[in-house]
Automatic annotation (TrEMBL):
<dbReference type="InterPro" id="IPR009057">
    <property type="entry name" value="Homeodomain-like_sf"/>
</dbReference>
<dbReference type="GO" id="GO:0003677">
    <property type="term" value="F:DNA binding"/>
</dbReference>
<keyword id="KW-0238">DNA-binding</keyword>
<dbReference type="InterPro" id="IPR041583">
    <property type="entry name" value="TetR_C_31"/>
</dbReference>
<dbReference type="InterPro" id="IPR001647">
    <property type="entry name" value="HTH_TetR"/>
</dbReference>
<dbReference type="Pfam" id="PF17940">
    <property type="entry name" value="TetR_C_31"/>
</dbReference>
<protein>
    <submittedName>
        <fullName>DNA-binding transcriptional regulator YbjK</fullName>
    </submittedName>
</protein>
<dbReference type="Pfam" id="PF00440">
    <property type="entry name" value="TetR_N"/>
</dbReference>
Length: 182
């Protein structure tokens, strides 16, 4: 069972992903989390601290989910494509709210001092982790290829969130991008 801090952060993510950054208040998080007023501010004294906490929690939850899709370490291009397709489908389907929260944070980082550094740090860790997997499947330039794949997936997911395609199948595009790089 999640501890109270995680409960607060998960409620903040849900609020951010369903109602956007304007709705993200300490009081709104307390209500959604079903906690007494003031609970969120006990853990996160400022809006900036709450936003940074959300980024950290998103990274934790994303890693947990990726492990489910990647079967720890894909050892072939085909296995990596399958894992990436599953992750994109999950991100734009069952996990759409959390994905929406992530993109709301991206926009918020452009106007909130310090948040860009927190998101940048999380992105660098993701790219390094992706580079390790790309090296396993034969990439000659895993660090730069991981940046390209990450950017492609971000764009793909963003477009599916904002202009949903009922026949969405990311397999061909992911296969093409991965094939061109490795």
């Amino acid at each position: 069972m999640a501890d109270k801090r995680e409960q607060v952060l998960d409620a903040a993510i849900a609020l951010l992903g369903t109602k956007g950054v304007r709705a993200l208040t300490h009081r709104g998080v307390d209500e959604l989390a079903g906690m007494p007023q003031g609970s969120t501010s006990n853990y996160f004294r400022s809006r900036g601290a709450l936003l940074e906490g959300i980024v950290t929690r998103l990274v934790e939850r994303d890693r947990e989910d990726w492990e489910k899709f990647a079967h720890l370490r894909p050892d072939s291009k085909h296995a990596l494509v399958d894992a990436l397709v599953a992750f994109v489908r999950f991100s734009t389907g069952p996990d759409r709210v959390r994905t929406g929260a992530r993109y709301a944070l991206f926009v918020e980082a452009s106007v909130t001092p310090g948040l860009d550094a927190k998101i940048g740090s999380a992105r660098r860790a993701l790219v390094e982790w992706g580079a390790d997997m790309l090296e396993l499947v034969g990439s000659k330039n895993p660090a730069s290829d991981a940046v390209v794949i990450t950017d492609y997936l971000d764009g793909l997911i963003l477009h599916q969130l904002t202009v949903p395609d009922l026949d969405f199948d990311p397999t061909a595009g992911i296969t093409a991008v991965l094939g061109a790089l490795t």
